[in-house]
Write a structure and sequence with these properties.
It contains 8 helices and 19 strands. It has 391 residues and is an alpha+beta fold. The N terminus is likely disordered. Among the domains are: 137 residues, Probable tRNA modification gtpase trme, domain 1 (Gyrase A, domain 2), CATH 3.30.1360.120; 74 residues, Elongation Factor Tu (Ef-tu), domain 3. The protein is globular, with a radius of gyration of 21 Å. A hairpin with an 8-residue loop joins strand 11 and strand 12. The strands form 4 sheets. It has a 6-stranded mixed β-sheet with strand order 10-11-12-9-3-13. The protein has a 6-stranded antiparallel beta barrel with strand order 14-17-16-15-18-19. A 5-stranded antiparallel β-sheet has the order 5-6-7-4-8. It is 19% helix and 32% strand.
């Protein structure tokens, strides 16, 4: 069992529970976080795929944007349709720099009554909140929520376990949510939750007051389907699902076009849409988008030529982050940003950036692992089919 976190690291409301459960604690995003429990990463990964895993993601930032102008204001920061998001629904978004590169990716939910609920990445939350406050704080109230923890319950049996304690959650579909009461048998706990997550599996993200986080976690872990899962399996699950990790696969050096995240840009914000542009770096991004669809870039803007792709190794050799990618002639054409042995498919998988000429599915590239060439093939993502519940 690891020692408790040092004074230099923050802790979540579940810190004592993690240590009680025998977690190996590591520094992550400024917090002491569980990387795995005694069962180990592989067992935790497979359990989440077949049953339900409970993750502590309380290091992430939660905030509320409140006011009649909140949606319109928030839309000015992202190439995403915020205004048209229906009440009770959630959407993925991208905070951008003025150069059109990615400050962070996030989730936002329309709670109605002129209020948006936003979740940002833990390592970025201080900067994100400052950026949002600076840019739109004069148009809406930006209210941080440090008094709230965040738990993720993921896996095909997550709904079975949670609906036993909070009847009605089974009626939700992917990317919807609402306020619920969890009955632990000894107390009733008010939560706000969405049916979403970071694993590719059906699941829920649950926002709960710090004072009740431990009781909620214990009630969920008491369900026969649920086991605690650490950051290690969270990473392997999200990579199999083809989902980006901020700081690895996207950052302030990448644009949404390079990152192959155009699905997050609704048509209304693209060229010819009713609310075309109007977001940071719009000129550059829309020009790159035009180029990527075969049109000619305008005004001499450098739109970039690399793309984020999925990769499958043709030998049983894991290809890790920062591994150089080459063409058959030994020319550097890119770099791996995330890579490991995919536990579900028992095959080394990765994602990374390659020159656009090599981005087509089926393209053959070479990874250089400790001086050894490992053949890889560009693959569609996700590597493991997603199991989101869409009704």
């Amino acid at each position: 069992m690891s020692a408790p976190a040092t004074d230099t690291l923050l802790t979540t409301p579940l810190n004592a529970l993690h240590i009680e459960l025998g977690a190996r604690m590591v520094p992550f995003a400024g917090y002491s976080m569980p990387v795995q429990y005694p069962a180990g990463l592989m067992a935790e990964h497979h359990h989440t795929r077949k049953a339900a895993g409970l993750f502590d993601v309380s290091h992430m930032g939660q905030l509320r944007l409140v006011g009649p102008d909140a949606a319109a204001a928030f839309e000015t920061l992202m190439p995403v349709d915020v205004i048209d998001l229906a009440v009770g629904k959630q959407r993925y978004g991208l905070l951008l720099t003025d150069e059109g590169t990615i400050i962070d990716d996030l989730m936002f939910f329309n709670k109605g009554n002129n209020e948006l609920f936003v979740i940002v990445n833990g390592a970025c939350k201080v900067g994100d909140i400052a950026h949002i406050q600076e840019r739109i704080g004069n148009r809406c109230d930006v209210i941080t929520m440090p008094e709230y923890a965040l738990l993720a319950l993921q896996g095909p049996q997550a709904v079975t376990a949670l609906s036993r304690l909070a009847p009605g959650v089974e009626k939700l579909v992917f990317m919807t949510g609402g306020n619920f009461t969890v009955d632990t048998g000894t107390q009733k706990i008010d939560v706000f939750l969405t049916r979403s997550g970071y694993t590719g599996e059906d699941g829920f993200e649950i926002s709960v007051h710090n004072d009740h986080a431990d009781a909620l976690a214990r009630a969920l872990l008491a369900q026969p389907e649920v086991k605690p899962i650490g950051l290690g399996a969270r990473n392997s699950l999200r990579l199999e699902a083809g989902l980006c990790l901020y700081g690895n696969d996207i950052d302030t050096g990448t644009t949404p076009v390079e990152a192959s995240l155009l699905w997050a840009m609704q048509k209304v914000r693209r060229a010819g849409g009713a609310r075309e542009g109007g977001f940071p770096g719009a000129t550059k991004i829309l020009a790159a988008l035009a180029q990527s669809t075969g049109a000619t870039a305008q005004n001499g803007i450098n739109t970039g030529t690399r793309k984020r792709v999925g990769l499958i190794a043709q030998e049983r050799i894991p290809v890790r982050d920062h591994t150089e990618l080459q063409d058959g002639a030994g020319n550097k054409i890119g770099e791996v940003t995330s890579g490991l042995l995919g536990p579900t498919i028992d095959t080394p998988v990765a994602m990374g950036y390659v020159d656009a000429a090599w981005a087509a599915v089926g393209s053959k590239v070479v990874a250089i692992v400790r001086g050894k060439p490992v053949p890889m093939v560009v693959s569609a993502m996700p590597f493991v089919p997603t199991n989101y519940f869409r009704g």
